Every structure is written in C-alpha cells, then in structure tokens.
Amino acid sequence: MDLSTTHPLNLRTQTPVNLSQLGFGGAPLGNLYRKIEEHEAQATLDAAWNAGIRYFDTAPQYGLGRSELRMAEALRRFDRNAMILSTKVGRVLEDCAPEDVTPEAFVDVPQKRIVFDYTYDGIMRSYADSIARLGTDQIDMLFLHDIDAGTHGAAGEDEKLRELFSRGGYRALTELREAGQIAAIGAGVNTWQICERLLGEADFDGFLLAGRYTLLEQDPLETFLPLCVQRDVGIILGGPYNSGILATGAVEGARYDYAPAPPDILERVHKLDAVCAAHDTPLIAAALQFPLGHGAVKSVIPGGATPQEVRQNVDIFQTKIPPALWSDLKSEGLIRHDAPVPMRPVDAA
C-alpha cells in the first residue's frame, strides 16, 4: 500500500488539503509520559516520512512547545510542498515561575504555563507563536484546541464558545483562511458533541476527533457523521485505540479513555478480540482501519514515539482484513449494524 496516496479533507477549501490516510500525531514528541532525546525524535519523524506519511499534526500544548520545535527541525529536511501540517490554537504559552509550569502529562518541559484564550487576540497570538516555533508560515490547518466540556466543564464550554464568537476568535480564524495564510479551520477535541455544536454555529472545514468513533464507540453515526457528509466536513481520527485498550487488548491494567478500563469494556474487548482471532486478524489492525470505513473519516493518526512504533503502525495499517470479520462483528452485536466498514483492504480502497 502506498501511504502517500491522499484523500481531500473536503472539496470546499480554497487550497486543497490532501491527507494521507495514515497520519502522524506529534504529542509523543512533546515528551508525553517520558523524555525522548532529540535524535530519537528526529529519527521517528524521518521514519514517518520515509514510510510515505504526509500528514503531520502538532500543538503548542505538546511539551509546552517542544513538539512544534522538533517538527520545525524536520521541516528543514522534508519537502514542505508535499506534506500537510496542522497545529492548534487557543492555548497561549507564557513564561512563568518554576512552580507555575503546567506540564500536564509531559515531562522535561520548558518553563511555561498555559493560558486558554479563544479571543481574536488569543487566536492571533497563538498562531504567530506557532509560526515562530515551527519556522514556517505554511500551516495548512488550524484547530481550536480542547474547547469542549471535557477540558472546561459544561459551563466552561458555554463560556469558551461565547469567547470564540463574541470576542473575535472565530473572526480571526476566518481572516487567516480568507487571506490564504491557512487552508482550513476546525477543532481538535475529545467529544463529537462540541463538533456538532460548532457546525451549528459557523463554517468549519474539518475536525480532529480523539476517539469517539472506534470499535467501541459509534454514537456519532446518529447525527454527527451524517451532518459531516452533508456539509462536506472531513474528520481526522486520533486515538483509534481509545487510549490503549484496543491496542493492548483486555489485559490487566488496560486503559480506556485515559483511565483503567471498567469491567463492561473489558468484557466487550475480550469478545472483539475473539472474533478478530477467529479471522487471524490482530485486534489492533481492525481498530486502526475501522474508522476509515466511513466516508467522512479522511485520516487516522495513532501515536508513535519511536521509529519502531511508526513502522509498527504502518504494518498494522497495511494488514489485509477479511470482509467476513466485519460482518461477524455486526452479527455478534459488537459494532453497530449501520456502521460502514472497509469491505476491501484499505490499500484497495
């Protein structure tokens, strides 16, 4: 399978945004959970590029700027015109005292703190800061980062949306898009409901959705994904393993949505794994390829912290899955009957 084959985010953007079906998520390069040496980070990016991956995503949050800085080094080697780059806005990084550093899940980070700001000035500052760290003004997509209730709470989500629309944040995004400085705008979030809400308010081109449409979750089929098809809005699917359990299986300590998996999820994953085993297919391969069965999903971006992990993702993505596996998952009630699936191997799609 040629990973350099691309699919458009949508057909509405002034500048085409063509995404490789397998993308690269830059969170691990921000020292997510563990320190990664610079040479290893660059080798990981090279492994992705050499495999044919042409979509790369990063964000200021990832290592408080470290991921963007590492991406900048790789951009000096890559053919910038042959790739798509996205980053995120809404988190502004400020110098601070050591005790005020907000590393979240990242280690060995710069002395910075995060300030959420979805106003006009906040979006423009966040964009300008990313331009400086990345060393390029060729950013293709800007995503509003974590504007959802999962980060701010229900009341906080309402407040942040008011900030976005009444204090100029959305205007900033559209000005950048209309000026041709970026090609597409959207949101990078952990819930599909906020994406549907944003589509009810304004014109967005696509969304980076972490999980929420996986072998374990297909609720977006009810209203959100049909709306995306109707509006020609593309989805980039991060977190296809639901933060781990669809990669590890239902082992002791398996994690689902960043927490220990509850018993009902463990039982369901056991059943998913058994059907996959009956078809000589690794569960992780079915999990990675399943989202691409839906026409709204344009790319999946699993994490990769080492060259070996990147190559493993490529191998998993190229695994040929028999169509009977999907029909058996449906007949067992393990995925929804109305879930579109890759009826042919992904490389033949």
Automatic annotation (TrEMBL):
Name any one Pfam family assigned in the record: Aldo_ket_red
Q: Where are the transmembrane segments?
A: none
* Name this polypeptide is given: D-threo-aldose 1-dehydrogenase
Annotated InterPro entries: AKR (IPR020471), NAD(P)_OxRdtase_dom_sf (IPR036812), NADP_OxRdtase_dom (IPR023210)
Report which superkingdom the organism of origin falls in.
Bacteria
A GO cellular-component term linked to this record: cytosol
All copies of the NADP-dependent oxidoreductase domain together span 22-329
Q: Which GO terms describe its molecular function?
A: oxidoreductase activity
Gene3D superfamilies reported for this sequence: NADP-dependent oxidoreductase domain (3.20.20.100)
Per the UniProt record, the lineage of the source organism begins with: Bacteria, Pseudomonadati, Pseudomonadota, Alphaproteobacteria, Rhodobacterales
